[in-house]
Structure formats: C-alpha cells, structure tokens
Specification:
The protein has four helices and three strands. By secondary structure, it is mainly alpha-helical. The protein has two domains: about 160 residues, Orthogonal Bundle (Helix Hairpins); about 60 residues, no CATH class. The longest helix is centred in the middle third of the chain and has 84 residues. It binds zinc ion.
Length: about 230
Amino acid sequence: MQDQVAVLLELRQVDDELRAMRAGLEARAADLQRKHKEADAVREALTREKDRLAAAEARHREGDREADNCRERKKKFETDLSSIKNNTEYHAMLKQIAAQEQKAREWEDVALQMMEVEEELQKTIARVAGDLRLKDDAVAEERKHYETDQRTLADREKELALRRKSLIARLEPIARSRYDRLTVAKGDALVPVVGGSCGGCHYRLPPQTVNEVRGGERIILCEGCGRILVWTDT
Ligand SMILES: [Zn+2]
C-alpha cells in the first residue's frame, strides 16, 4: 500500500507538468493574440493616414485645376476687353478680370496648403509604416515561439500519457477513482501534512492520523476537505 501513495505522488507530478505546459501554451496564445491586435491597430492607423493623404492630394489637384480655369477665363476676358467700346461694359469686364485673378490666387493657396499637409502626412506615414514593420516582426517572432511550444507540448504529452497509463495501471481502482474525482472537484487530489494539520484546509489532524499518513500503510483522507493526505519530508 505504501506504493500507492508513491504512485499517486508521481501521478500528480505528471498531471502538474501537463497542466503547467498547457497553461504556458495558453499564455503564449494570448500573447500572440495581443500582439496581433496591436499590429492590426497600427495597420488601421496606417490606412487612415493614407486615406488622409489621398484626400489632400485630390484637394491639391482640384486647387491646381481650378486655378488654371480661373486664369484661362481671365485671359479670355482680357482678349474680349479690346473689342468692348461701351465704358460701363468695359469697367464691368475689368471687375470680372480682377475677380478671376482673386479666385485663381485663392485656389493656388489651397494647393499650397495641401502641399504642406501632404508633406506632414508623408512623414507620419513613414513613421507608422516603420511601427507596423516592428509590430509585424513581433507577431512573427511570437508565432514561432508558439508553434515551437505547441510541438514541444505535443511530444511531451505523448510521453506523459504513456507514463500516466503505466502509473494508473499500478493503482488500485479505489485509489484511482478517488484521485480522479478529487482532481476534478478540488483541482488537486493530494495535500501534504504540515505541522500536524492538513496543508490544504488547515484542519487539525489527530496525532494518530498523522502517524498513519507517515506510515503510508493506507490512503488516508483529510476529514476537513476530503483530499488524500501525503507525507513529505519538508
Ligand atoms: Zn484538508
């Protein structure tokens, strides 16, 4: 029977290792997802800046085009001017010419402003694109780690499954079902005796129980929490 407690302890070691490896892999997966989200946020920011640049460029072209149109109209009015004999009409045409000149300058200002906006946006885009490369590299790196861990876990799981099978084969059915049931119900089936109490629930154990656990003759359950008491040297 002493063997049973030793087998249970070894079984728990196997299960602890499996649990820790799976938790580690889950943490890696969460890291990978977080880095993915960070990269996607930067990617979206880059798209927004590029859209802004496209809008500024369109407005720039509009300014150039409208300025050209105004100057063409102005030129036509100036040509027409020579054929006008009526004084009132002549002055009206001069006003039209001045108005076209004014409008042309306004459109040129728009084009100039857009040029400045474009310059700033191009700087921003270069910076954000650099950020994105770093974030994408981080994702690729993290994915490599994750895939390595995944393979390692799969290999180790195979080994541990074999070991678990051989350990379970050595357990008496009652010990095995208690272990399985307690692992599911309490997360851990085994609790050490610490200073004469249950190390899990701190239930004060009768001295005779402590002696029995130390002797390892049979499986003893804590009266407080129902888990299997084990003797460890510490
Ligand atoms: Zn207990």
